[in-house]
Amino acid sequence: MVEITAESILQCRVNSLTSPPPVVSTSSAFDPGSLSNATLSNANLTATRTSTSTGGAASTSYRSSGKYYFEFIVGASHGSTDFVGVMASSYGYFFAVNGNTGTGVGVWLGSGSIVSNGGPSGSLGASAAASGSVIGAAFDGDNERIWFRLNGGNWNGSGTANPATNTGGVAYPVAAMAPAVAFSPYGSPTAGDNITANLGASAFSGAVPFGFTAGWPP
Protein backbone atom coordinates (compact mmCIF):
# COMPACT_ATOMS: atom_id res chain seq x y z
CA MET A 1 0.00 0.00 0.00
CA VAL A 2 1.38 3.41 -1.01
CA GLU A 3 0.91 6.20 1.50
CA ILE A 4 -0.01 9.53 -0.05
CA THR A 5 0.94 12.51 2.08
CA ALA A 6 0.70 16.26 1.66
CA GLU A 7 4.47 16.34 1.32
CA SER A 8 4.47 13.82 -1.53
CA ILE A 9 1.73 15.73 -3.36
CA LEU A 10 3.69 18.98 -2.99
CA GLN A 11 6.84 17.31 -4.27
CA CYS A 12 5.00 16.03 -7.33
CA ARG A 13 3.80 19.55 -8.06
CA VAL A 14 7.29 20.97 -7.67
CA ASN A 15 8.73 18.30 -9.95
CA SER A 16 6.09 18.99 -12.60
CA LEU A 17 7.00 22.67 -12.61
CA THR A 18 10.76 22.22 -12.59
CA SER A 19 11.18 19.22 -14.86
CA PRO A 20 12.83 20.05 -18.18
CA PRO A 21 10.51 20.29 -21.20
CA PRO A 22 10.24 17.38 -23.60
CA VAL A 23 12.70 17.62 -26.48
CA VAL A 24 12.12 16.45 -30.04
CA SER A 25 14.31 13.43 -30.77
CA THR A 26 14.87 14.64 -34.32
CA SER A 27 14.30 18.24 -35.37
CA SER A 28 13.02 19.65 -38.63
CA ALA A 29 14.93 21.86 -41.07
CA PHE A 30 14.18 24.04 -44.08
CA ASP A 31 12.88 22.23 -47.15
CA PRO A 32 15.10 22.66 -50.25
CA GLY A 33 11.95 22.34 -52.32
CA SER A 34 10.48 25.44 -50.66
CA LEU A 35 13.29 27.79 -51.70
CA SER A 36 12.73 30.99 -53.62
CA ASN A 37 15.68 33.30 -54.35
CA ALA A 38 17.58 31.69 -51.50
CA THR A 39 20.07 28.95 -50.72
CA LEU A 40 20.48 26.68 -47.71
CA SER A 41 23.51 25.80 -45.59
CA ASN A 42 24.28 24.66 -42.04
CA ALA A 43 22.37 21.37 -42.41
CA ASN A 44 19.51 23.26 -44.11
CA LEU A 45 18.96 25.51 -41.09
CA THR A 46 20.37 28.76 -42.53
CA ALA A 47 18.57 30.48 -45.40
CA THR A 48 20.58 33.05 -47.38
CA ARG A 49 18.99 35.35 -49.92
CA THR A 50 20.50 35.35 -53.40
CA SER A 51 18.83 38.44 -54.85
CA THR A 52 16.96 41.58 -53.84
CA SER A 53 13.64 40.07 -54.94
CA THR A 54 11.12 38.43 -52.64
CA GLY A 55 12.18 34.97 -51.49
CA GLY A 56 12.40 32.64 -48.54
CA ALA A 57 12.38 29.13 -47.12
CA ALA A 58 9.93 27.01 -45.11
CA SER A 59 10.28 23.94 -42.91
CA THR A 60 9.78 20.42 -44.18
CA SER A 61 7.10 19.84 -41.51
CA TYR A 62 3.62 21.37 -41.13
CA ARG A 63 1.73 21.12 -37.83
CA SER A 64 -1.84 22.00 -36.87
CA SER A 65 -1.71 20.76 -33.26
CA GLY A 66 0.77 20.52 -30.42
CA LYS A 67 2.86 23.11 -28.57
CA TYR A 68 6.37 23.82 -29.79
CA TYR A 69 9.14 26.32 -29.04
CA PHE A 70 11.79 27.30 -31.58
CA GLU A 71 14.00 30.27 -32.44
CA PHE A 72 15.25 32.34 -35.36
CA ILE A 73 18.72 33.91 -35.28
CA VAL A 74 19.38 36.90 -37.52
CA GLY A 75 22.69 36.82 -39.37
CA ALA A 76 21.98 39.88 -41.50
CA SER A 77 18.70 41.56 -42.44
CA HIS A 78 18.22 44.69 -44.55
CA GLY A 79 14.74 44.19 -46.00
CA SER A 80 12.32 46.33 -43.99
CA THR A 81 9.66 43.62 -43.89
CA ASP A 82 11.91 40.55 -43.73
CA PHE A 83 9.65 37.99 -42.03
CA VAL A 84 10.12 35.17 -39.52
CA GLY A 85 7.22 33.11 -38.22
CA VAL A 86 4.92 30.35 -39.41
CA MET A 87 2.85 30.00 -42.55
CA ALA A 88 0.61 27.57 -44.36
CA SER A 89 1.89 26.06 -47.59
CA SER A 90 -0.60 28.21 -49.50
CA TYR A 91 0.55 31.51 -47.97
CA GLY A 92 3.68 32.34 -49.92
CA TYR A 93 6.60 34.66 -49.27
CA PHE A 94 5.07 37.57 -51.21
CA PHE A 95 2.09 37.58 -48.86
CA ALA A 96 4.35 37.42 -45.82
CA VAL A 97 6.44 40.49 -46.66
CA ASN A 98 3.46 42.53 -47.87
CA GLY A 99 1.07 41.69 -45.05
CA ASN A 100 -1.54 40.31 -47.41
CA THR A 101 -4.54 38.48 -46.03
CA GLY A 102 -3.73 34.80 -45.75
CA THR A 103 -2.71 32.01 -43.47
CA GLY A 104 0.50 33.21 -41.86
CA VAL A 105 1.70 34.99 -38.74
CA GLY A 106 5.11 36.36 -37.88
CA VAL A 107 7.41 39.29 -37.17
CA TRP A 108 8.67 41.95 -39.57
CA LEU A 109 12.27 42.28 -38.46
CA GLY A 110 12.78 45.90 -39.48
CA SER A 111 10.05 47.28 -37.23
CA GLY A 112 9.43 44.42 -34.81
CA SER A 113 5.76 44.44 -35.81
CA ILE A 114 3.76 41.23 -35.42
CA VAL A 115 1.45 40.57 -38.38
CA SER A 116 -1.25 37.93 -38.64
CA ASN A 117 -3.60 37.20 -41.52
CA GLY A 118 -2.62 40.45 -43.22
CA GLY A 119 -3.10 42.76 -40.26
CA PRO A 120 -1.09 44.20 -37.36
CA SER A 121 -1.37 42.13 -34.18
CA GLY A 122 1.17 43.68 -31.85
CA SER A 123 4.85 44.47 -31.64
CA LEU A 124 8.03 43.23 -30.03
CA GLY A 125 8.67 46.84 -29.06
CA ALA A 126 11.89 47.23 -31.06
CA SER A 127 13.53 46.34 -34.34
CA ALA A 128 14.73 42.75 -34.55
CA ALA A 129 16.97 43.24 -37.58
CA ALA A 130 20.32 43.57 -35.81
CA SER A 131 22.83 40.81 -36.39
CA GLY A 132 22.64 38.30 -33.55
CA SER A 133 19.02 39.06 -32.66
CA VAL A 134 17.15 35.99 -31.44
CA ILE A 135 13.40 35.78 -32.00
CA GLY A 136 11.80 33.09 -29.86
CA ALA A 137 8.50 31.59 -31.00
CA ALA A 138 6.00 29.59 -28.95
CA PHE A 139 3.47 27.91 -31.26
CA ASP A 140 0.27 26.55 -29.69
CA GLY A 141 -1.58 24.62 -32.36
CA ASP A 142 -4.14 23.36 -29.85
CA ASN A 143 -5.41 26.88 -29.11
CA GLU A 144 -4.43 28.51 -32.44
CA ARG A 145 -2.18 31.06 -30.76
CA ILE A 146 1.45 32.09 -31.10
CA TRP A 147 3.86 34.23 -29.08
CA PHE A 148 7.12 35.90 -30.11
CA ARG A 149 9.85 37.55 -28.06
CA LEU A 150 13.10 39.35 -28.84
CA ASN A 151 16.30 38.35 -27.06
CA GLY A 152 14.42 36.81 -24.14
CA GLY A 153 12.21 39.87 -23.56
CA ASN A 154 8.46 40.08 -23.05
CA TRP A 155 6.23 37.83 -25.09
CA ASN A 156 4.48 39.80 -27.85
CA GLY A 157 5.89 42.95 -26.27
CA SER A 158 3.61 42.61 -23.23
CA GLY A 159 4.53 42.07 -19.61
CA THR A 160 1.37 39.99 -19.10
CA ALA A 161 1.49 37.72 -22.17
CA ASN A 162 2.49 34.16 -21.32
CA PRO A 163 2.27 31.06 -23.54
CA ALA A 164 2.38 28.77 -20.49
CA THR A 165 -1.00 30.14 -19.38
CA ASN A 166 -2.40 30.80 -22.88
CA THR A 167 -2.46 34.54 -22.15
CA GLY A 168 -1.96 37.29 -24.71
CA GLY A 169 -1.29 35.07 -27.71
CA VAL A 170 -1.77 36.21 -31.30
CA ALA A 171 -4.57 34.32 -33.05
CA TYR A 172 -4.04 32.94 -36.53
CA PRO A 173 -6.31 31.24 -39.10
CA VAL A 174 -6.62 27.52 -38.41
CA ALA A 175 -4.33 25.56 -40.70
CA ALA A 176 -1.25 23.37 -40.71
CA MET A 177 1.70 25.71 -40.26
CA ALA A 178 5.47 25.47 -40.72
CA PRO A 179 8.29 27.71 -39.46
CA ALA A 180 9.42 29.96 -42.30
CA VAL A 181 11.45 33.01 -43.25
CA ALA A 182 10.69 35.45 -46.06
CA PHE A 183 13.04 38.03 -47.53
CA SER A 184 11.57 41.42 -48.42
CA PRO A 185 12.24 43.53 -51.54
CA TYR A 186 11.67 46.72 -49.52
CA GLY A 187 14.14 48.83 -47.59
CA SER A 188 17.73 47.95 -48.50
CA PRO A 189 17.58 44.24 -49.39
CA THR A 190 21.03 42.76 -49.81
CA ALA A 191 22.07 39.46 -51.35
CA GLY A 192 23.81 37.49 -48.64
CA ASP A 193 21.38 38.45 -45.88
CA ASN A 194 20.68 35.33 -43.86
CA ILE A 195 18.54 33.91 -41.05
CA THR A 196 19.03 30.66 -39.15
CA ALA A 197 16.22 28.59 -37.67
CA ASN A 198 16.94 26.63 -34.51
CA LEU A 199 14.24 23.98 -34.59
CA GLY A 200 15.81 21.91 -31.84
CA ALA A 201 19.14 20.94 -33.38
CA SER A 202 21.08 22.87 -30.71
CA ALA A 203 20.53 24.47 -27.30
CA PHE A 204 18.12 27.39 -27.24
CA SER A 205 19.04 30.91 -26.22
CA GLY A 206 15.79 31.41 -24.29
CA ALA A 207 13.87 29.29 -21.80
CA VAL A 208 11.23 26.96 -23.22
CA PRO A 209 7.76 27.85 -21.83
CA PHE A 210 6.17 25.32 -19.48
CA GLY A 211 4.03 22.83 -21.38
CA PHE A 212 5.84 23.32 -24.70
CA THR A 213 8.11 20.89 -26.52
CA ALA A 214 11.64 22.10 -27.23
CA GLY A 215 11.96 22.06 -31.00
CA TRP A 216 9.88 21.42 -34.11
CA PRO A 217 9.58 17.76 -35.14
CA PRO A 218 9.99 16.59 -38.75
Shape: globular
Q: For this structure, what is the CATH homologous superfamily?
A: SPRY domain
| Poorly predicted spans | 6-17
- The CATH architecture assignment turns out to be Sandwich
Counting helices, strands and paired strands, the structural category is: mainly beta
In terms of quaternary structure, the protein is single chain
Residue share in β-strands = 25-35%
Q: Sketch the major β-sheet.
A: 8 strands, mixed
Tell me the span between the first and last alpha carbons: 43 Å
CATH class: Mainly Beta
Q: What is the average per-residue confidence, as pLDDT, rounded to a whole number?
A: 90
How does this model look, in words?
The protein has one domain: Sandwich (Jelly Rolls), CATH 2.60.120.920. The model is unreliable at 6-17 (pLDDT under 50). The strands form 2 sheets. Strands 1, 2, 4, 9, 10, 11, 13 and 14 form an 8-stranded mixed β-sheet that branches. Strands 3-12-5-6-7-8 form a 6-stranded antiparallel β-sheet. The protein is globular, with a radius of gyration of 18 Å. With 218 residues, it is mainly beta. A hairpin with a 2-residue loop joins β7 (113-116) and β8 (119-123). The chain has helices at 6-18, 93-98, and strands at residues 38-41, 46-49, 55-58, 67-76, 83-87, 104-108, 113-116, 119-123, 134-140, 145-150, 170-171, 178-183, 194-198, 213-214.
